[in-house]
Design a protein that fits this description.
about 450 residues, alpha/beta, Rossmann fold, N-(1-d-carboxylethyl)-l-norvaline Dehydrogenase, domain 2, 3 domains, 6-stranded parallel beta sheet, 18 helices, elongated
Length: about 450
């Protein structure tokens, strides 16, 4: 099949490369000339494990191409995916759909023959019908259907998520559209991946509902972690006891500095606004957002308390800046909420991240020292704050690390280490929702 991706950002690039791996002919269109030029020269503008090899392999095979203009690609396409950004709109929390509707207008001018136009971007309920209206108005003669096919890609494991998905959700309204989408995803039949067909509205809400629920689990366990700290309970034990219940499950029950990234913050806000727009309540999701914000603020207090009540003139080595490991994504990362208040209070920050430092430089205040190694970051530090659980930080030589420091404070916001062994090494250890001493 001939597939076009409108947008060569994270979702469009990963999805396009994976569809090409399925054997389809894919063209990724993007108006960003620098991005397209980089992709054509073999440079991948984002960090995602395995993506560079996947793109290179399919470009070499002639199944994957990049361009700034259609040049006949949309005209020949069986399916055209809209995979553009839907950032939170300033001032009201709604998803900004201007790029989606702009893409729909561009697509309309090039449609020839029957085509399925697919919303891949995360969009509020009703967007697919509006895309249909926009295209019909711009090109009344167009023969097309609109489908909704939300993505469920986790940064750091997106290729595996696409190739071996928990499920594929597709909203359609015609048998022709369903047949096209079944053919597109036919390679997944070999692994019997669940492919669920529903109506447009159900598909659109499913994405938001799923992300809001996962965010709820994170905020819930973070709130429980506060109770654990006050009572001497261990949030690891509590989470395990909860997660062994098959109705609850173990995933996303990890206490930490709060969720971030490109999806949860944006989608929970959009879910709240969407509920308000349709005259319903979303009180649980509203509470989730509030708890997440308070958890990030609580981490600042935890670091300050670990340093005796003040961070002024203290040198703090910060390990991890991205919102999670295996990505360079800084969007809504906890580090963006935790580090600026520390800097404002006079702390000297020495930061390290395996992949995120270039992006971090664009987001964090001036004055942060970006270390070229873990050893460089911790040398002379009064305290270490572990903010992102990269594997490099799980396997540190802690004895050698302690010798490089001036102080002995270790604030583990991801609960990577155990209190007993840390105390034996001479660290003043602090963590989240667990007794800091064995």
């Amino acid at each position: 099949m001939h597939v076009v991706m409108i947008g060569a950002g994270y979702v469009g690039l990963v999805s396009g490369a994976c569809f090409a791996e399925f054997g389809h002919n894919v063209t990724c269109l993007d108006k960003n000339e620098e991005r397209v030029a980089a992709l054509k020269s073999g440079e991948i503008p984002i960090y995602e494990p395995g993506l560079d090899d996947l793109v290179a392999r399919n470009v070499k095979a002639g199944r994957l191409a990049f361009d700034t203009k259609s040049n006949g690609a949309i005209e020949e396409a069986d399916t055209v995916f809209i995979a553009v950004g839907t950032p939170t709109r300033r001032g009201d929390g709604h998803a900004d759909l201007k790029y989606v509707y702009g893409a729909a207008e561009d697509i309309a001018a090039h449609l020839r023959g029957y085509t399925v136009v697919v919303d891949k971007s995360t969009v509020p309920v009703g967007t697919a019908r509006e895309v249909q209206r926009v295209i019909s108005k711009a090109n009344p003669e167009a023969d097309f259907d609109v489908a909704s096919n939300p993505e469920f890609l986790r940064e750091g494991s997106a290729i595996g998520d696409f190739m071996r998905p928990d499920r594929v959700v597709i909203g359609v309204e015609s048998e022709r559209a369903e047949a096209k989408m079944r053919e597109l995803y036919r390679p997944l039949n070999l692994i019997e991946a669940p492919i669920m067909f529903t109506n447009l509205e159900s598909a659109e809400i499913t994405k938001y509902a799923a992300n809001a629920f996962l965010a709820t689990k994170i905020s819930f366990i973070n709130e429980i972690s506060q109770l654990c700290e006050q009572t001497g309970a261990d949030v690891h034990a509590v989470a395990r006891g909860m997660g062994l219940d098959g109705r609850i499950g173990r995933k996303f029950l990890h206490a930490g500095p709060g969720y971030g990234g490109s999806c949860f913050p944006k989608d929970t806000q959009a879910m709240i606004r969407m509920a308000q727009e349709f005259g319903t309540s979303s009180r649980i999701v509203e509470a989730v957002v509030e708890v997440n914000a308070s958890q990030k603020a609580r981490m600042v207090s935890k670091i300050k308390d670990a340093l005796g009540g003040s961070v002024a003139d203290k040198t703090i080595a910060v390990l991890g800046l991205t919102f999670k490991p295996e990505t360079d994504d800084m969007r809504d990362s906890p580090s963006l909420a935790v580090l600026p208040p520390l800097i404002d209070r006079g702390a000297n920050i020495r930061a390290h991240d395996p992949k995120g430092m270039e992006e971090a430089k664009k987001e964090l205040p001036e004055g942060v020292y970006y270390a070229n190694s873990i050893e460089d970051a911790v040398t002379g530090a009064d305290a270490i704050v572990l903010l992102t659980e990269w594997n490099e930080y799980r396997g540190m030589d802690l004895k050698a690390t302690k010798q490089l420091m001036n102080g002995s404070v270790f604030v583990d916001l991801r609960n990577v280490y155990e209190p007993g062994p840390m105390a034996e090494l001479g660290f003043e250890y602090s963590c989240v929702g667990r007794p800091s001493k064995a």
